[in-house]
Design goal:
Number of domains: 1
Largest sheet: 2 strands, parallel
Helix content: 55-70%
Strand content: 5-15%
Oligomer: single chain
Radius of gyration: 16 Å
Number of helices: 5
Number of strands: 2
Order of helices and strands: HHEHEHH
Length: 116
């Protein structure tokens, strides 16, 4: 079963082979979409991070994969986020990612850790 899941995950990642993340990000920006892409292990406050990006800044955060990735996926995400992040920084300032992460950790703490 585990091997089958890995095969399916790798097959899905091949959709990024040969795609230009920078070009697709520029197209998305022209159409009014502001999106950050992610993959891999997430922080406990990941849902809050997505919420704050969307609610406070109008930025959608999409997870494309878990921990199993291919070189083409990593390259695509890096190119895409390079273009998007430059636009986001131009809109909200150089410290925006740090600010959002701090807010997300704070919201997570408020929601879940203070209850215990």
């Amino acid at each position: 079963m585990e091997g089958q899941r890995a095969s399916v995950a790798l097959a899905l990642h091949h959709e990024y082979e040969g795609r230009d993340g920078r070009l697709e990000a520029a197209e998305d920006l022209r159409s009014g979409k502001v999106i950050l892409l992610g993959y891999g292990l997430v922080y406990p406050w990941h849902a809050e991070l997505q919420e704050i990006w969307r609610r406070d800044y109008g930025v959608e955060f999409r997870d494309l994969a878990g921990c199993i990735v291919t070189d083409s996926l990593v390259k695509y995400v890096a190119g895409y986020n390079e273009v998007m992040h430059a636009d986001i920084v131009a809109r909200f300032g150089a410290e925006i990612s740090t600010t959002v992460a701090q807010k997300a950790r704070g919201l997570y703490t408020e929601r879940y850790l203070k209850r215990k």
